[in-house]
Amino acid sequence: MLRLKIEKRLTPTWKVVFSVTVLSIFLAFFVIGFIFLGYGINPVKAYIEILIETVGNFYGITQILWQSIPLLLCGVGLLLAFKASFWNIGAEGQLLMGSLGATWAALFSGLPDFLLIPMIFILGFAGGAIWGLVSTVLKAKFKVNEVITTLMMNYIAMNIILYLIHGPWKGEEMKGFAYTNSFPQPAWLPTLGMSYIHWPTLIMGLVAVAVIYLIISRTKLGYEVKVIGQSQKAAKYAGISYFQTIFWVMLISGGCAGLAGAGEVAGVHHMLRHPDQISLGYGYTGIIVAWLARGNPIVTILTSLLFGAIYVAGDVMQLSFGLPFQIVNVFTGMILFFLISSDHLMRYKISFRREE
Amino acid sequence: MQKRDAIISMKGITKTFPGGLKANDNIDLDIYQGEIHAVLGENGAGKSTLMNILSGIYRADSGEFFLNCKPVQIKSPKEAISHGIIMVHQHFRLIPPHTVAENIVLGLGTSFLSPLKGIEKSIKEFNEQYNLSIHPKTRICDLSVGEQQRVEIVKALIRGASILILDEPTSVLTPQEAKELFGILEKMKKEGKAIIFITHKLEEVLEIADHITILRKGKVTASMPSDQIAKKGSEAKSELAMKMVGREVILKVEKESFSLGNTVLEVDNLKVLDDRGIEAVKGVSFSVNRGEVFGIVGVAGNGQGPLVEAITGLRPPSSGSFTVKGDVGYIPEDRLSMGSVGDLTLAENSILTDYKNSCFSRHLLLNLSYIREYAEILMIKFSVVAPNVNTRAKQLSGGNLQRLILARELSKNTQLLVAEQPTHGLDVGSIEFVWKFLLEQRKNAGILLISGDLSEVLSLSDRIGVMFQGKVTIFESPFSDKIEEIGLKMTGF
User: Fold this and answer.
1) Residues of B with CB below 8 A from A237's CB?
2) Shortest CB distance from A226 goes to which of B344, B364, B368?
């Protein structure tokens, strides 16, 4: 008799991780294919069209790069927090608070022109960091679950911005629309050629990847993060202070999301506007970007590009097939669903055994 | 007298866990109707494993069950319940915010309509029958631990238990509650139920059990009716205690004696609370000097954990004081999730308790090349077998991992070393290795050894403290004529 046996794998090899990951993404595409069918669209044709419009031409590629900037910053910051098993779901709110800090710097700081852009990034970082640290203090001092606080802080950030753009910061030049005034020209981030790629933020993202890689692999803080993330009991035994470590982790994690927000307002919109327009759920998608990278900050470059491409694919679907924008959320949701399920599969292997 | 037939009998039950630990080794056990059968043994003797097998939670590797002399299979808790075998776990399986009735109904799989009414009626019946006084509409979280246990018992009765297994039922109870529990058990016994009572407390066994089976290291070392023991008196009791903790010979360990140095740990009337806020260490005083092993022996759960946590600075004492000379080296009992970090490399694990030391990290950065070299040296010196220093700790066997932890803690040159169950679950070779290094370390330090293994403590210690219910009784060497006394102290006599 042939019997199915399920055994536990201690450490899945990178080949297993890679192939299972790719397979689960393809499975997600397969299932999403039925959604296309539901709209009366041939999924094969749709995927070909999407491929051509995204990675198939130069414009598509610049679009992908542009979309992946905030995803990279949010994702790599989240990766550090997840490494410490601090489940920061609040990159969205941290991003929004970063955009708020950046807006203040651009519109109200009154700094000389050459200081505007540095200040936009500094206050962007600070806005995100402070927002992240609120949950840190609540967790470390009062043991409040960080999943709940970081998530709820997103809504608070959103409403603060809504209040500002409808109230005190509402621009005079906007004639009734809920925007702030446009940023002065010196506060606009430069872009690459004709594209939307605001390269200073892109460089920030790459620097963040490098810094977080170095922190994890070479510093005392990184060591503490890894021990805390694996076992709080061992951390206590080793004399590692939970609060101190998580403080630095969330300062960096929230700060990265804040930089992403600064980049969006100073590089794309040049004003503070409705939160749904500033962030197309970058903070939430960043969770998947970090998750997919499986603890390796360098890999977030690839995963953020993948999700940048999915965002662009969403645009293509709207323009070419007339599908609603929300379909992108279905896309990412499906992919996340399959990836999280695959995580368990990686830890087991199935073998067939002949039994008498 | 004609021999009765057992309601359930187990034959040749063997269970080996992944990792090679033989928790049950060819165990035979007969349980009779209307009898309270105590299964006695230390922690790790295999009692809970055996009962988990009987109640269908684990599967035995080999062995057979006979229910009323007919062979049966027990593959799942559901099957066990269908045979009337129900276990009340040490940690209750109740949902705190739900009511008593709701908890009892859960999993009964009765009709579509709410079964609560019917259940409330049967709870009342059992209430009267056994004098339980539990109200079906009270929420579990409003009940005391003793009352929750009664809910578990009623739950078992309503499911039609004819064989009731109680896992360490008195460990959570006050003496008064324990007395009430015994009353209930006596009544159930008269109703013709068979009761299996798992414990490591010898006293209460003699009070309530009809038949006693002693397990030690996965084997049955004794099985007899309890009136036999009662007749023979105190000698039989010490016999029983020795069967449980083992008639230990002091193993021949090469042990040169060192002259005693200065005091490195002074504990004065120390009291420590456990997680539940109950006083687990009830005023303990002792001292450890350089050049000696002070061994604390006791059955697990008598306050050793909180005592160690206090001395190593992980838990603040509630009163009393202790003074430690210098830093403490600490080999924790839980080597997998406390003593090491499974997903980190051996190099990273080799600095776990010392990573702030200036030779491993300067300012913000780690000195990676030095850490690797250091780990390599440790691995050679303590013969840790692994491919290289980048191997993950979770890939190491228990013995190798313990060598690494030992290497790390001994190399720190602290004056006090706390070793908690340092050889628990290791193979013979590793045990000898650990012992050798602990004894050698007396040259530089005083050693506080905490162990449940009497033979280990007898073999290594220069002085012994027996810990029972939060108190320590100290014995001076030589121990050869005090072994029985120590064994009795461990079991509470």
Assistant:
1) 314, 330, 332, 338-339, 352-353
2) B344
Architecture per CATH, domain B248-327+414-493, reads as 3-Layer(aba) Sandwich (3.40)
Chain A nearest-CA distance from B354, in A, is 7
Is A229 inside any structural domain? yes
In a domain, A126, yes or no: yes
Q: Do domains B8-245 and B248-327+414-493 have the same CATH topology?
A: yes
Domain boundaries defined on chain B: 8-245, 248-327+414-493, 344-413
Of B337, B342, B353, the CB nearest to A238: B353
Peptide bond into B478 cis (omega under 30): yes
**What total number of domains does chain A contain?**
1
pTM: 0.78
Q: Is B445 in contact with B414 (CB distance < 8 Å)?
A: yes
Distance from CA of A188 to the nearest CA of B (A): 35
Stated length of chain A: 356
Kindly write down the DSSP assignment for every residue of B71-111, as one continuous string.
Answer: EE---SHHHHHHTTEEEE-SS----TTSBHHHHHHTT----
* CA–CA separation, B409 and B404 (whole Å): 9
Architecture, CATH, for domain B8-245 = 3-Layer(aba) Sandwich (3.40)
Question: Is the reported ipTM for this assembly greater than 0.90?
Answer: no
From first to last of the 493 residues of chain B, give the pLDDT tens digit.
345 788 999 999 998 877 667 889 999 999 999 999 999 887 678 888 899 999 998 888 899 999 988 898 888 888 898 899 999 988 888 998 899 988 988 877 666 667 777 888 888 888 888 888 788 888 888 888 888 888 999 999 888 889 999 988 887 777 778 888 999 999 999 989 999 998 877 777 888 899 999 888 888 988 888 887 766 666 777 777 777 776 555 555 667 777 888 999 999 999 999 887 888 999 999 999 999 999 999 887 789 999 999 999 999 999 999 999 888 999 999 888 899 999 999 999 999 999 998 889 888 899 999 999 999 999 999 989 888 999 999 888 888 899 999 999 999 888 999 999 998 877 767 888 899 999 999 988 999 999 988 888 988 999 999 998 899 999 998 887 888 888 888 877 6
- Position A71 in a domain: yes
